[in-house]
Amino acid sequence: MPNEIRPPLTDDDSASPTRVKFHAYPDADAWASACAGALAAIVRRDLERNGHARLLLSGGTTPAPVYRALSKTPLHWNKVDIALVDERWLQPDDADSNARLVRDTLLQNHAKAAHFEPMTRVGRTLEEAVATANAHARRQASAAVLGMGEDGHTASLFPGARDLARALASHSDYVSFDASGCPGAGAWPLRITLTPQGLSKARERMLLVRGESKRKLLDRVPDSDDIGRMPVRAAFTTPGAALQIHWCP
Ligand SMILES: O=C1O[C@H](COP(=O)(O)O)[C@@H](O)[C@H](O)[C@H]1O
């Protein structure tokens, strides 16, 4: 992957420590409850200020305990929109879809009343799904909740993918993404993903990370100058809200 790929909106591509805050917790329970508390505070603030709130959520394996904890928080969930940071090109109820993860973990308990916008729908083409995600993205997100894969991907921005440069440079909030040949994409190479352009608009930015190997990976991000190999760097360098990293072993 060439070195020259850069996020489009970044004047200064150095990952400034002033824009990144690292929160470490002793265990998964403390981590989940603190992250859920931080998200609840963001939602509450936007409900008070604007009368509505909107969260962009990642899938994968990491965030489930946070979403479960958040689902039990009493909020005016009927005024909250839940959308996805990225999705695998699967039917909306597929067990491996990010929509299913959000439904099974967050959209329970109090949070059942939230309004969910899955990206995929039976009969919807990939192009229609991307267009719909971009139309919904006109409403500013209260927060974008990101994850990070062991390969350094975030959202569905995969290292070494042929679509990466196009996604990083896109002026759309969401794009389709072909991650064929990227081991980190698993059995689901075709994706829809938030771009740095979309990320730049979120009022708050969180990165949820667990485990020692990912912590070592995180430590390497500020010194990595190759976003093509380390797309999570976009979370550090894209202008906008500071990046709040929440980590536990
Ligand atoms: O495929 C994906 O992976 C990332 C990271 O997932 P994890 O299982 O390592 O937590 C996730 O953030 C993204 O939403 C998902 O589509």
From TrEMBL:
The keyword Hydrolase applies. One of its GO terms (molecular function) is 6-phosphogluconolactonase activity. It catalyses: 6-phospho-D-glucono-1,5-lactone + H2O = 6-phospho-D-gluconate + H(+). This is 6-phosphogluconolactonase. The keyword Hydrolase applies. InterPro entries: 6-phosphogluconolactonase_DevB, 6PGL, Glc/Gal-6P_isomerase, NagB/RpiA_transferase-like. It is an enzyme of class 3 (hydrolase). Belongs to the glucosamine/galactosamine-6-phosphate isomerase family. 6-phosphogluconolactonase subfamily. Hydrolysis of 6-phosphogluconolactone to 6-phosphogluconate. It comes from Luteimonas galliterrae. Keywords: Hydrolase. Its EC number is 3.1.1.31. Pathway: Carbohydrate degradation; pentose phosphate pathway; D-ribulose 5-phosphate from D-glucose 6-phosphate (oxidative stage): step 2/3. Residues 26-235 form the Glucosamine/galactosamine-6-phosphate isomerase domain.
